[in-house]
Amino acid sequence: MKPLSGVLDTTYEYQTKVFCVISNQRVFRSRSPAMFTTVFARVGINGAYVPFMVADGNLGKALESLRVLNIAGASITSPFKEAVIPYLDVLSEGANIIGAVNTIVSKDGKLKGYNTNAIGIMDALNGVQFDVAGKKALVVGTGGAARAVVFILNWLRAESIVVAGRDNEKTRRLAEHFSGTPLKLTDLAEAPLNADLVVNATSVSSQDESDSLTGLVCGMTVNGCQLVFDLNYGRRENIWQAMADKNDIPFIDGLSALVCQARRTFLLWTGREVPQEEFLRALEDQ
């Protein structure tokens, strides 16, 4: 992967449209800046995409700066997908229902929030020919990514959705909002679980990120599982993949979802339809 400096050390024209990704320290793991900047160049759009690390208490100031600096659009990642909503002028119907935003379009000083996570997750599942209809799903996590997962699984007519989270009240609210069932996170390894699909919607995919969750995941037994889907990507010694391998379950990470949702985000920002393969090729070239 090329360092970001290799992507950004150029002189931009005044007319260059600037886009960004807003996150905390996790922004430095994002592959989106290099991916989007490469696609802009390949399709002939005068655009640049830069990473912004924002402290929790400065989110409002960061959003106001999008207006002041005439930033054309922004990606919002964990942990700000829900917290960003009060600072926006309007939400798309999907973002309003889901209760989380991962894409912002800035136009005429107004910020509109969208959610392309959900459709990206659906496209990723379609890519491995996994039919959600009539299936039992287990979703681990309660943040903005989890909200998109639970929404799209419900929309795709999953038979049942169990949501497991650390905060019992937040878990209950999310599950009930989408007609699901809450589960204490500590119960993941207590007894065998029944699920056709397991989705990790937390930010944790390796032991160095959380010893406690690693212990729970390693102790999981899932009966009848057909797919483990980790929304994160690029992790070494992935605990979800290890769990899947131990139980002989197919596994996919979040790279395919990233590509799928990036294509949708690009369309919102530019009005241009770009084949999914262009985004995948941009990632492969890093």
From TrEMBL:
Domain Quinate/shikimate 5-dehydrogenase/glutamyl-tRNA reductase: 131-204
Enzyme nomenclature, EC number: 1.1.1.25
GO molecular function, one term: shikimate 3-dehydrogenase (NADP+) activity
Pathway where it operates: Metabolic intermediate biosynthesis; chorismate biosynthesis; chorismate from D-erythrose 4-phosphate and phosphoenolpyruvate: step 4/7
Alphabetic keyword roster: Amino-acid biosynthesis, Aromatic amino acid biosynthesis, NADP, Oxidoreductase
Domain Shikimate dehydrogenase substrate binding N-terminal: 27-104
A GO BP entry: shikimate metabolic process
Catalytic activity, as annotated: shikimate + NADP(+) = 3-dehydroshikimate + NADPH + H(+)
Gene3D superfamilies, per the entry: Leucine Dehydrogenase, chain A, domain 1, NAD(P)-binding Rossmann-like Domain
Domain of life: Bacteria
Record CDD domains: NAD_bind_Shikimate_DH
Signal peptide: none
Keyword NADP: yes
Class in the EC hierarchy, top level: oxidoreductase
Protein name: shikimate dehydrogenase (NADP(+))
Organism field: Desulfosarcina alkanivorans
